[in-house]
Amino acid sequence: MPTLALADMNQLSESGIDFVDEPYFESLLKRKADPGRIREIIAKSKNKEALEVEETAALLNADEPELIEQIFDTARQLKKDVYGNRIVLFAPIYVGNYCINDCKYCGFRRSNPDSVRRTLTAEELRKQIEMLLKKGHKRTIAVFGEHRNYGPEYIADCVNEIYSVQVGNNSIRRVNINAAPLSHEGYRIVKAAGIGTYQVFQETYHHTTYAKMHPKGTRKSNFMWRLDSPARAIESGCDDVGLGALFGLADWKFEVLSLVAHATHLMEHYHVGPHTISFPRIRPAIGVTIKEVMEHDVNDNDFLRLIAILRLSVPYTGLIVTAREPAALRKTALGFGVSQIDAGGRIEIGGYIESGDAQAQALEKAQFELGDVRSLDEVICQLLNDGYIPSFCTACYRLGRTGEIFMEHAIPGFIQNMCTPNALTTLQEYLTDFASPETKAAGERILKQEFDKIPDGKRKFDILDRIERIRNTDERDLYF
Ligand code: SAM
Ligand code: SF4
Which pLDDT belongs to residue 396? Predict the structure, then answer.
């Protein structure tokens, strides 16, 4: 295993300032806007314009049932207009859980004696990926603890290894990473390996809570190094970044406001917003006393409300709800904002092979407990029965439609002209190669229904041609 020096934490980005103006955000969260102003803000977001921090605060403070309902309705509409009925699917691959940090909420934290430490060998990683491919996955996110063993060169090697695995004519087409903050040089190294999104969660934007959760002296206790990491990633060429906060640590309204401030900060400085935002809620984990970390429990209603408000505030940013959440709640969240979910994921290191298809979770090997442990096929079947198009599309980043360029293209029509056809062809791949009979029947219904909606013309002809080739030949990966 390589031993690498960890990056110097003083080299911030050019935009490296602490934009989390806590007193200001807190004052905004005390100010209530009148219903007329709220309606104006809702109208602005209907126009698919990103909202300012002040406008987001006004939505967060709107507690009249009628206004909340309007926010949900608008989120539903925006979701339809910007994303159509596609849902992008991925699965995580946990590579190693050694960690030098001591985050109080995490099962992998270094002081947890109950955590079983392990890093997959290259061979084990290949075997895990083979299993993902056999189930039908095309997109993965590789997850790492923070440790000198997991430096950028090591992460890049893992990404290359994942891309190189082939099962029949299938391989992983997009590898995202969730890893500790890197230096500019580190980001250049992982970018050169062809990562899709670089995802890093701030955990909490609230300074005091951040300090409480990340003990002094650990690398992660450096708030600014972490806050600045998406900016450094963008400056180094990783222009698809994923932001997130771990909900339950601090006031949810404050975290939403800060996430929007973070998106605005990136937009202002780099003309590119985050590709995705995640909002995991804290889950039980072995060796974690939930009561000690979850001072601001977010109930399901508020959780759904925060998703809807994010949908209005950052209309072109993908929203992710992971299998931390139970199936029923994920289903509801899909209706008004969420555009990406993981499915059939195992978060124990080695879990795809060693746990088989068992639903039981080996908690001592996992970072936390999952809420939705259905298989990929079960999730796809439900999506189809609910009228969604499950998508494994990876075309945009492979064709260079990322970052600022993606922003330019992220206009109604363009995304749907590219994304819906790619969703349909990747769905056809899944149905032909992996689906259970029930899923196949549901999928054929959706394919026909969606195909009938496409206006006659060359694009329709091309889509049909590709679908037929996938059905009748070994040709795969035919994207627009
Ligand atoms: N070590 C890297 C870091 O901290 O950035 C990334 C890996 S960590 C395995 C991925 C994310 O899981 C963390 O950023 C945190 O938000 C989330 N997480 C940690 N403990 C959790 C818990 N008990 N419940 C839910 N999510 C948790
Ligand atoms: Fe380590 Fe990340 Fe867990 Fe913190 S959240 S203990 S950095 S794996």
Answer: 80
Q: Is the CB of 283 under 6 A from ligand 1?
A: yes
Residues in the chain: 480
Ligand 2: residue of 106, 143, 249, 347 to mutate (most ligand atoms within 8 A of CB) is 106
- For the full predicted model, state whether its pTM sits above 0.90: yes
> Domains plus CATH for the chain?
6-20+86-374 (3.20.20.70), 22-78 (no CATH)
Instruction: Among the bound ligands, name the one nearest to the CA of residue 106.
Output: 1
**What is the position in ligand 2's atom list of the atom closest to the CA of 97?**
8
For ligand 2, residues with CB inside 6 Å are 99, 101, 103, 106, 108-109, 145-146, 220
Q: Which residue has the higher pLDDT, 440 or 362?
A: 440
Mean pLDDT of 354-380: 76
Question: What tokens appear for 169 in the block?
Answer: 């004519």
C-alpha count within 13 angstroms, C-beta hemisphere, residue 269:
21
Separation CA 72–CA 311 (nearest Å):
9
Q: Which residue in this structure is represented by tokens 């790492």?
A: 144
Task: State in Å: Cα 369 to ligand 2 middle.
Answer: 15
Give 314-361 pLDDT, tens digit per residue: 998 999 999 999 999 999 999 988 999 999 988 888 989 886 655 456
DSSP 340: E
CB-neighbour burial class of residue 145 (10 A; exposed 0-12, middle 13-18, buried 19+): buried
Mean pLDDT of the chain: 93
| Ligand 1 centroid – CA 433 distance (Å) | 33
Which atom of ligand 1 has the smallest separation from the CA of 245? 16
Q: Is the pLDDT of residue 412 over 70?
A: no
